[in-house]
Write a structure and sequence with these properties.
The protein has four helices and two strands, in the order H-H-E-E-H-H. By secondary structure, the chain is an alpha+beta fold. The radius of gyration is 18 Å and the shape is elongated.
Length: 97
């Protein structure tokens, strides 16, 4: 999905929003299943992009309540951004909850 967003942003930032809108309106697929997103890209015309959800569901049933009790929304977003930027993230705490 991020590769497709970057491809559109390279052509025009205005193309990202319609793609994200059509993606948000698509049903969330089960693990291993495919969704098809209809989209338009200048030069390529109308396209149907197939996106497959990975079979790896290790985090599907993880309870993130303790994370959100310990960190603010701003801190969670900062951690997530750091992970996306492939930075090292180390959690330090006095005790585990």
């Amino acid at each position: 999905i991020l590769d497709e967003v970057e491809r559109r942003r390279g052509v025009s930032a205005a193309l990202v929003y319609p793609f994200m809108r059509s993606l948000m309106e698509s049903p969330f697929p089960a693990p291993g299943k495919i969704i098809k997103v209809k989209t338009f890209l200048p030069g390529a015309g109308n396209e149907v992009i197939e996106l497959r959800r990975p079979n790896d569901s290790r985090l599907e049933h993880v309870d993130f309540d303790s994370l959100f009790r310990c960190l603010s929304v701003r801190q969670v977003l900062r951690v997530f951004a750091s992970l996306l930027l492939e930075r090292r993230v180390i959690f330090v705490a006095d005790k585990l909850r």
